[in-house]
Amino acid sequence: MGQPLDVPELAAAGGFTLRPWRLSDLPLVREASRDPYIPLITTVPSPWSERAGVAFVERQWGRATARAGYPFVVVGPGGRPVGSVGLWLRNLDQGRASLGYWVVASARGKGAAVAATGAVADWALRELRIPRLELWMEPWNTASVRTAERAGFQREGLLRGWQRIGEKRRDVFMYALLNDWA
User: Fold this and answer.
1) For residues 84 and 140, which has the higher predicted lDDT (pLDDT)?
2) What sections of the sequence does the record tag as coiled-coil (predicted)?
């Protein structure tokens, strides 16, 4: 399988930082589990229990151990964890990786998602030399669309019935960022 991936600490714009998950991040998982949307598009547990929260954090560690990707916690300027961003490597053999992000409701509107997505994308392109990064989001999710565009991603199209979200297959926008450094 190879050595586990080393999830680094990264500085991001606006005083945000990115770091590996810790068990002390359980309050962040608890808040995310109460969001009506985050558990539908992630593996954040809903309903919340401490046991399910611990299992979620351990899954993040397992993703790095299995070399599936780099899961980061987004930490605000005051030191409070506010969200998550992941760089997923499932299609790396084809020259592409994907990103996903979420920010808890109490921290939205402060630039965390843009700062975190931009920092991970820059690191993935410059340091890891990944040729193509991809993002997917539902068309109605205007905040996520703005995040992707502000982080430099370009919309490439609509993928109809692309992903199961909740009980339904949903359309998603495909966004990509190409590596000018490769």
Assistant:
1) 84
2) none
User: Bridge-partner residues for 85, per DSSP?
Assistant: 72, 101
Strands 96-103 and 132-137 turn out to be parallel
Contact 84, 101 (CB under 8 A): yes
Chain centroid to Cα 34, Å, comes to 18
For residue 12, the tally of other CB atoms under 10 A from its CB is: 23
- Which listed CATH number (2.60.40.420, 3.40.630.30, 3.10.20.30, 3.40.1010.10) goes with 10-133? 3.40.630.30
Higher-scoring residue by pLDDT: 92, 2: 92
Residue count of the chain, please give it.
182
Report the 10 Å Cβ neighbour count for 88.
Answer: 16
38-50: pLDDT as tens digits: 998 899 999 999 9
Q: Cα–Cα–Cα angle for 139, 177, 38, nearest 5°?
A: 40
d(CA 177, CA 180) in angstroms, rounded, equals: 9
